[in-house]
């Protein structure tokens, strides 16, 4: 997927050198307005309210006119999903580059914390990405914009695990120590999705950490910890403090 970027004082060319026309720029501006409008409706009313008719009404267009930009309602939602994944991923990368690049403990902690902060600041957007399936969003094929963006997000965490494993391998179970039912699924996941040679124990540890991280964040975002906690940040930090030693990392409280 090629993204067009606006360069202050630029020449009207894309990053690849292709000259953009006025029509190209108007189309890009309209697509951005559609996307921004869709997100506002999402935040105000939830995913079920993000319809072509509602967007068109806000923009002073007719619903059929939107089909010049998106093939279907599902296509529009998938584009929004892709943009949200890119926004989240960009924030994670920006946070990661604020700490020393050779400090794996700091990198994992800052990325995990930034993931939670983005989720809490954008609960409706988080629900669209990680909540109950929304009709049309999951009807995508390999190479779909949303699929590629979600993979980019996923590799943010996986690449940290790969880097950590290469620099300082952490204890993992041997294949024969893994539940056979889980073992076959981990093997399929490695072969079908990763394209890298890794012990299955590493993947098990990765998924264990992801379940704790994303599960804890989801419980907080969706209000399922409010029965006991007004502020779940300390509980989140307890989780990080337990995960770090299992990976051979050092836990440091925030702000230190």
From TrEMBL:
Keywords: DNA-binding, Transcription, Transcription regulation. Residues 51-70 bind DNA. SUPFAM superfamilies: Homeodomain-like, Tetracyclin repressor-like, C-terminal domain. Residues 28-88 form the HTH tetR-type domain. The keyword Transcription regulation applies. The keyword S-adenosyl-L-methionine does not apply. GO terms for molecular function: DNA-binding transcription factor activity; transcription cis-regulatory region binding. PANTHER family: HTH-TYPE TRANSCRIPTIONAL REGULATOR RUTR, HTH-TYPE TRANSCRIPTIONAL REGULATOR RV1816. This is TetR/AcrR family transcriptional regulator. The lineage of its organism: Bacteria, Bacillati, Actinomycetota, Actinomycetes, Streptosporangiales.
């Amino acid at each position: 997927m090629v993204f067009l970027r606006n360069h202050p004082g630029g020449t009207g060319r894309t990053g690849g050198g292709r000259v953009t026309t006025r029509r190209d720029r108007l189309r890009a501006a309209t697509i951005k307005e559609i996307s921004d409008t869709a997100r506002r409706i999402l935040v105000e009313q939830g995913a079920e309210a993000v319809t072509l008719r509602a967007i068109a009404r806000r923009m002073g267009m007719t619903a059929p006119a939107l089909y010049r930009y998106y093939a279907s309602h599902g296509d529009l939602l998938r584009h929004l999903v892709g943009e949200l994944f890119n926004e989240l991923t960009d924030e994670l990368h920006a946070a990661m580059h604020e700490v020393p690049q050779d400090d794996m403990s700091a990198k994992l902690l800052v990325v995990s914390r930034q993931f939670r902060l983005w989720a809490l600041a954008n609960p409706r957007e988080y629900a669209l990405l990680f909540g109950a399936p929304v009709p049309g969003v999951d009807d995508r094929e390999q190479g779909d914009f949303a699929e590629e963006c979600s993979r980019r997000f996923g590799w943010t965490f996986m690449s940290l695990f790969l880097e950590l494993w290469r620099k300082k391998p952490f204890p993992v179970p041997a294949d024969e120590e893994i539940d056979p039912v889980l073992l076959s699924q981990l093997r399929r996941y490695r072969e079908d999705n990763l394209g890298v040679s890794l012990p299955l124990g590493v993947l098990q540890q990765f998924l264990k950490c992801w379940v704790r991280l994303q599960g804890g964040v989801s419980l907080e975002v969706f209000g399922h910890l409010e029965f006991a906690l007004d502020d779940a940040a300390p509980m989140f930090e307890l989780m990080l403090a337990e995960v770090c030693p299992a990976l051979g990392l050092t836990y440091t409280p925030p702000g230190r």
